[in-house]
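Known limitations

Files may contain more than one protein. Parsers should not assume a single record per file. Below, a two-record file is shown to illustrate correct handling: read the sequence, read the token line, then continue until end of file.
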Amino acid sequence: MPTSVESGDALAVDVSCSDDSLIVVLDDGRTVSVPLVWFPRLLAATPQQRTDWESIGGGIGMHWEAVDEDISVASLLQPEKFMRLAHTARPPTSHARRKAKFRKPSRAARG
């Protein structure tokens, strides 16, 4: 199935990985670097597996066959829309807060 790309969308032209970062060079001259821990499969991959990537949709994303990983350029440019990151974790539900509020104090706290 053909993939269309809007004219304003940035496309990946080169990809590399350090021990702790994924670095993507875009066709508009920008370089995007994100923590490799965002992508556990790439983090666990060998250096050779990390270099073996292919373009998806003319550059709208990247694919690593050996580790079954697909990453879109859009997700790197706006991660808050695509990924559940540690700093965006939801607060506990009201039930969990009530339960925590009414826990018995520990033996040491009771004296």
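...continuing to the second record:
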Amino acid sequence: MATEARTETAPLGRTWQRPGLVPMAGGALVIGILLWLAYNAYLNTSSFFQVLLIGVTLGAIYGLIALGYTLVYGILELINFAHGDVFMLGGMISATFVVQVFSLHDHPSIGSLIPALLVTLAIAMIGCGLINATVEFIAYRPLRGAPRLAPLITAIGASFVLQNIGLRWKGDGYTSLPSILPQGNVFSIGGVTYTWRQFIIILIVVPVLLGLVYLVQQTRQGKAMRAVSQDKDAAAMMGINVNRTISFTFVIAGTLAGAAGLVYAVFVTELRFDQGFQQGLIAFTAAVLGGIGNLPGAVLGAMLIGLIQAFNEGLTWHAPGSAWSESIVFSILILILVFRPEGLLGERTPEGG
């Protein structure tokens, strides 16, 4: 009886549970990666921070693409696999204007570079916004009430259509751009240099991201987007035009892809018709890692993926190398989907996603 009494009065909150095997393995993996990074930083500190800056630049580019995925998913719960190919077409549009319209060459003057970049950025964003809205109107809107598998298959089909447009337009080889970004250093501290080539990417990306946050959080259309993402029927009863709001969301996602296409084109200086599929999957992984449907999560996931890729390809001590970059990124995607499908900042839904 005394034992029973103690059992009945024992506070439930003090029960200690042994951690499961999966959390323990995940914690050990994270600790191992941090130790690997720390030892690489100890071996060559300047090289480590140089690679870190490259990772931030890559993460900024992936962030623009990942936000397009997360915007569309947040409002329709649709993975728009054509988004990566819209990004590819944005790069092709940018390459055409840089080379053929503005005739820029290696290391142009600032006076000719800045206007050309601003005009090309505007055209790429508008063009990709219209492309994305057209895809939504033709391929997705008729399937709005269909089972989820139908629009998913349609998204894959739209991806191949856009990919073949790029193939027909520019051929199956690489489209090369001149090295138009400045090569000087913004600063150089202790052997760590930060170039204007990297800094200009941030100067383009950050205002676009801030503009998106302002649009979603402060404007009337942004409030309509958030209302539709929560409950389409209730939003319609409140007088919100659901179709127009969804089309607007696709336009915004397309403009982000266009901006990312320009940034990627001038930074990497080589484009191919199938790079949208490759880079799009990496950005999709970033969106899932951060929590797809969550804007800060998409940026966080993109930065982490950019750093992972940079460390893998740039560090010297026991780094797998560039041949393993995609395998590592997609392994992260699989692990996230299996063990934490809501991502780092996402919320677990009743469906488990």
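Parsers that stop after the first record will miss the second one. For reference, the second record is described as follows. The radius of gyration is 23 Å.
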